[in-house]
Amino acid sequence: MAAVPRGERLIITLLGRRNVGKSSLINGITEQDISIVSETPGTTTDAVAKHYELIPVGPVTFYDTAGIDDIGELGEQRVKATRRVLWRSDVVMLVFDKEDLEDHDKNSIKELKDMEIPFLIVFNKTDLYKPAIETLAYLDKEELPYITVSAQDKDDMFALRKKLIDLVPEYFKKDPVIIGDIINPGDFVVCIVPIDLSAPKGRIILPQVQIIREILDHDAVAITVKENEIKEVFANLGKKPTLAITDSQAVLSAAAAVPEDVPFTTFSTAFARYKADLPTLLNGLKTLDELEEGDKVLIAEACSHHVECDDIGRYKIPKWIEEYLGKKIDFEIAAGHDYPDDLTPYKLIIHCGGCMNTGLEYKRRIRHAHAQGVPITNYGILISKTQGLLERVIKPFGF
Fold it and tell me: What pLDDT, on a 0 to 100 scale, did the predictor assign at position 44?
């Protein structure tokens, strides 16, 4: 369970003021002492992550966050860190420990609604107090889900887990596929995996691993090769592959080696459909041809990693874009969870495949860009565009 990729886990965040019992709730839900519990406000500083198997949902990560009313310069930084966790949350538990809701509490509710994050209002410590009748009437009127619990009561924690399961977005209840809907049992799928400086030692990158596993899960045959072995493999297969799929960095050389009558795409393009919204990202790609000298472009990477001299986001994509346009562009990088609040300075956002994002987080980033009028696209389809291969790469998906 602990080995499940971060981007495939449901993320449940506990949000609330200091000392409302968020840490006690995590300990109660998981039936483990994960977070430090203290009567001193501000005990939880940085967000604490706990992996858990929430049956029947599957692997989840609970985030215990600092209080949103934390004070001082350090407290302000903690609150900002909590806000960043919200961006990647799939479900939020908004925790209170008092009778009445104040204006700032209602503002938190409004913020979650605006972000379109499913949330559950949790009145904690109800062994000590009960929420006011007026408060419950307000929640009923607004049709807001809530529960009253004591973190010390096992029956309450059972009821809370059930409420959380009911809130899980449909995205996690389905069994989404990456390429499984375009292959059949017995098909051959050729996976072209370059081993270069950016390849992790002794491993291959996550999108490649997930697609190879999906091919096997669909009773098809995964044939994995490096880009300099493609012609030899095709000459000796004896059966036409249903699909060839390559790392985007090798798309030009791979396309030249894969016969034209074999459907051909990239791992990143497949993930654009799986994690995000391929039509929207294709529409954002149109902006590439409209860029002017000196325009700002944001390269958004979902993970933080050691940067090599041939790094795809920091070196190769900027190089290919400037060669394609014949113009000098101003590129900026946002790595990991550091996705800017203000996107308006950018003419275009180019996002990675998102294997470390959940699908909901990726879609939330897209909505955030659209709300500010900034087009967004994806590594794989942009690279294919600059190499003159876009139509061939998106064709297997019906475009």
Answer: 45
Mean pLDDT of 159-179: 83
* Rounded distance between C-alpha atoms, residue 25 and residue 47, angstroms: 14
Cα–Cα dist 94/119, whole Å: 7
- What pairs with residue 14 in β-bridges? 64, 93
Q: Which domain holds residue 244?
A: 182-270
Residues in the chain, total: 399
pLDDT tens digit sequence for 100-110: 888 888 888 98
The per-residue DSSP string of 359-375 comes to: HHHHHHHHHHHHHTT--
Structure token digits, residue 362? 């990726």
> 147, 173, 199 — which closes off a domain?
173
Which CATH number belongs to the domain containing residue 48 in this structure? 3.40.50.300
Please tell me whether residues 262 and 301 are part of one structural domain: no
Spatial CA neighbour of 352 closest among 264, 251, 276, 255: 276
Low-confidence winner among 86-90, 188-192, 289-293, 380-384 (lowest mean pLDDT): 86-90
Q: What is the pLDDT of residues 322-377, one digit of tens each?
A: 999 999 999 999 887 678 889 999 999 999 888 777 777 888 888 889 889 999 99
CB atoms within 10 A of CB 50: 17
Burial 143-180 (b: 16+ CB within 10 A, else e): eeebbbbbbeeeebbeebbebbeebbbeebeeeeebbb
pLDDT at 359: 76
Q: Classify residue 190: in a domain, yes or no.
A: yes
Same domain for 187 and 288, yes or no, is no
Collect all residues with Cβ–Cβ distance below 8 Å to 316 and sequence separation of at least 6: 249, 310
Distance CA 336, CA 312 (A): 15
Q: Is 116 exposed, middle or buried (0-12, 13-18, 19+ CB in 10 A)?
A: exposed
Question: Where a domain ends, among 173, 204, 234?
Answer: 173
State the sign of the Cα–Cα–Cα–Cα dihedral 379, 2, 168, 339.
negative
Looking at the fold, whether 338 and 236 belong to one and the same domain comes out as no
